[in-house]
Known about the structure:
Helix 16 (551-562) links the parallel strand 19 (541-545) and strand 20. It contains 19 helices and 27 strands. The radius of gyration is 27 Å and the shape is globular. Helix content is 35%, strand content 21%. Helix 11 (360-369) packs parallel to helix 12 (388-398). It is α/β, with parallel strands linked by helices and 698 residues long.
Amino acid sequence: MAAKPGQIPHGNIPPEPLPEDRFLDREESWLRFNQRVLELAEDHDLPLLERVRFLSIFATNLDEFFMVRVAGLMRRMATGLAVRSASGRQPREVLERTAVVAHDLMLRHAACFRDDILPALAKQDIEILRWDELADTERETLSRIFREKIYPVLTPLVVDSAHPFPYISGLSLNLAVVVRDPETEARLFARVKVPELLPRLLEASPDRFTPLEDVIAAHLTQLFNGMEIVERHAFRVTRNQDLEVDEDITEDLLQALEKELLRRRFGPAVRLEVEESISEEVLELLAEELGVVERQVYRVPGPLDLGGLSLIADLDRSELKYPPFVPSKAALPSEGSIFSALRERDVIVHHPYDSFTTSVQRLIEEAAADPGVLAIKQTLYRTSGDSPIVDALIKAADEGKQVVVVVEIKARFDESANIEWARKLEKAGCHVVYGFVGLKTHCKLALVVRQEPDGSLRRYCHIGTGNYHPKTARLYEDLGLLTADQEVAEDVTELFNHLTGYSRKVSYRHLLVAPNTLRSGLVLRVEREVGHHRAGRPAHVRFKCNSLVDEVIIDALYRASQAGVPVDVWVRGICALRPGVPGMSENIRVHSVLGRFLEHSRIYAFECGGSPEVWFGSADLMHRNLDRRVEAMVRVNDPSHRDELIRFLDRGMDDGTASWRLHGDGDWTRYKGTPDNPATDIQTHLMRTRRWRTVDGG
């Protein structure tokens, strides 16, 4: 059983009392993360189209936050399961605070688009215009597009005594239209859905774009022939889209998930976005029919759904984007077999700086083609639609090799794609396993069993922090260990047996595995640092993760700080820890790095009295990772790899590195240096410098 917040399951750290208000609210902390994304969009030092992309990312991030976090909290409140959060807030207080912060950020987001990005784009001859701003010839062009491609797929739905209010699907963009019958003077409400399969922005002329809903609004008389258009307003609904499947009573998980994906479209509304020009009459009607209260209504300047700005960010204007970057292929020798290289030494790859294609993908593809390979075992959490990894696994099965794939079909928002790949793999003859009831399989593992030329069997492994997704490997910062170390391979083999069979193995020599040993293993190592510090030996805790929420881990870090151990936390997103609080966390620093690449690796390093211990793997420090997922962290055995990873962590936390710094009150301050002495962008630094290599001992 996991220890409760405030308890220490191991070690000699005295249970000194910690303040009740020692945790930041996780929901607000997530919103502050998205605020940092917005600050990148507001940053005039970044290329313009990259700023546009960050505007788009902010919008899609916020959609997911409402679909999952806000919706989940509302669902728990409705069922009576919600309890006071670790931050001390009641659920209703969390919702109210979330609404205030989210609304402020949405207004700031809209202002950035309208007052900053639009004029900057116009200076580069890229314009996003409303219908009234278009030239007559452009309106003629769009009118033709409307007749040929838009009008045929529109379905206006009127609301009257014979026609109930239509269902509004989640994240759909709609027009609320009020029409008047000139003969009877009757006023009617109608809804027109903006087609999702058409481009969000239509090109009226080269590099001049107009929102799709504006084109539809300008032609409403063709939909309501003979009626007078009194008013029309864009609106958008966000619904609960988290999956609910009771695996304990579900025999066919694939079929249950397919049904649940259909049901998810009909979840309760959690947010109503409307243009600020909407009339009170129409807003009241929408709110009543959708069942939303005032705090769930977000009035913002149009246009809505700025996630569609990705279309602008993708324009072929290289001078307005980050400079091209080609990943290094030097991590492994290009000549000879990858198996020969791994027999000589372990290799650590750091994506996207190191090529995924010539390292991890190469391992699976060579394994599929190598006649000596007998078996391939792999976990798949997310992968791309045209995955060369999946193709290689299918090829291996066709070649008669044993292929075992642990597919996590419950990977949020990738369920449909993963169901498709699971069925494709099964048809090819792969053994497809869906993991454990009640647990998501989130670990990133690959195991290749090969018969060597001398007849012996040898196993080769990859253990990573990121998914086997070639496209995101060019955008996500991740680590991977490629090794032929037979002790590590034995651990990975036993973990696969645990995933696919009935092995009850819970402890390993080189792995920490959730939900059994990961939390307790990290806490134990934090406590050991306290012992080293008290004995006068070097002590230091360094964590890099996406989120830090788990109260037991945070309390262990607080106690380490109280004992005088320096603690550095490099976190991308949520952080519930309050750093720099006298008497509790004055020895803790928390920094965040956001930029061109999504910081995604998870690394946990301990000074260990001068003999450092470094682990990396799939686990963040959240309840879901430590209690409800199968996660794997691997210990880095090569001293040069350990040292380089520690230098990487120290550079990320260096005062001269560009980052955001967290304060004890939950606010973040961005540090960029000065015009004369700009801070170091760690991602740019890594793109420009030769990273650690195991080739030639470099």
